[in-house]
Design brief:
2 helices, membrane, single chain, 76% helix, 58 residues, mainly alpha, 0% strand
Length: 58
């Protein structure tokens, strides 16, 4: 499988999982912070996967 596909899929799954964890946890607790961190990592994975395929000026 292409690397960008793996990054997009993993990023999307991490984003969804992080958002669920952050939603279900009590704000400002370690579980909530972990959920937010996972969501941020998911966004970074999505951006990295999409960014690998964008070609500017070609």
């Amino acid at each position: 499988m292409e690397r960008f596909v793996r990054l997009v899929v993993a990023g999307g799954l991490a984003l969804v999982a992080g958002l669920w964890i952050a939603t279900l946890a009590v704000p400002q607790t370690p579980g909530w912070v972990a959920g937010v961190a996972l969501a941020v990592a998911g966004v970074a994975g999505l951006a990295a996967g999409i960014g690998r395929e964008i070609r500017v000026g070609e």
